[in-house]
Amino acid sequence: MRLISFAVVALLFPGLAAAQAVVEAPWARATAPMAKAGGAFMTISSPMADQVTGVASPVAEMVELHQTVEQAGVMKMLPVPALDLAAGQKVTLKPGGYHIMLMGLKAPLKQGESFPMTLNFAHSKPVTVQVQIEAPGAAGPMMHMH
After folding, report:
1. pLDDT at residue 127 greater than cutoff 50
2. 94: Cβ contacts below 8 Å, ≥ 6 apart
3. In a domain, 9, yes or no
4. Is 44 within the bounds of a domain?
5. What mean pLDDT, rounded, does the chain reach?
6. What is the structure's pLDDT at 143?
7. Model's pTM, two decimal places?
8. Please, are residues 100 and 65 in contact by the beta-carbon 8 Å criterion?
9. 142 belongs to a structural domain
10. Structure confidence at residue 13 (pLDDT)
């Protein structure tokens, strides 16, 4: 049914069907030299209802969407199969909430460097961004002048 309704929208409103998800301010924390996991954060929006359905990056063996939740008084990071995006609303991935886990890092994430990451969506085309690596304890992205 969802495919049929998307096709109808594409026929009636061709500009809307071409709408694209947007990824803003992608960043990650630098990791210790022997660390095998890291996290990436960003803000994602879409002009139409959509879902982030997967994430990939060459810096890690496995990349997953996760959410930090409290279970029985213990904070846990659990994988989520998809991240819903309401039309026109921004979703911010940040420490302590939704985030992207980079597992099996192939090399440490070093402050000042960047790496590519591709986000896949249910309706939008994939979006590839450069993730800026910030300080190990960073709470958010720094403004970089180029």
Report:
1. yes
2. 41, 140
3. no
4. yes
5. 88
6. 57
7. 0.82
8. yes
9. no
10. 53
Tokens representing 138 are: 């960073």
| Distance of alpha carbon 54 from the chain centroid | 9
Cα dihedral value 117, 139, 22, 121, nearest 10:
50
Domain hosting 76: range is 19-134
Instruction: Indicate the number of domains in the chain.
Output: 1
CA separation for the pair 131, 134 (Å, rounded): 9
Instruction: Retrieve residue 5's tokens.
Output: 């309704």
Full DSSP string of 101-129: EEEEESS---TT-EEEEEEEESSSPPEEE
pLDDT in tens, 67-119: 998 889 898 889 999 999 999 999 999 999 999 999 999 999 999 999 999 99
- The predicted-structure confidence for 14-44, as pLDDT tens digits, reads as follows 544 557 999 999 999 999 999 999 999 999 9
The answer to whether residue 13 sits within a structural domain is: no
E-strand stretches of the chain: 22-29, 37-45, 50-56, 60-71, 74-79, 83-85, 91-93, 98-105, 114-121, 127-134
CATH of the domain at 32: 2.60.40.1890
User: Among all chains, which residue has been given the structure tokens 């800026």?
Assistant: 132
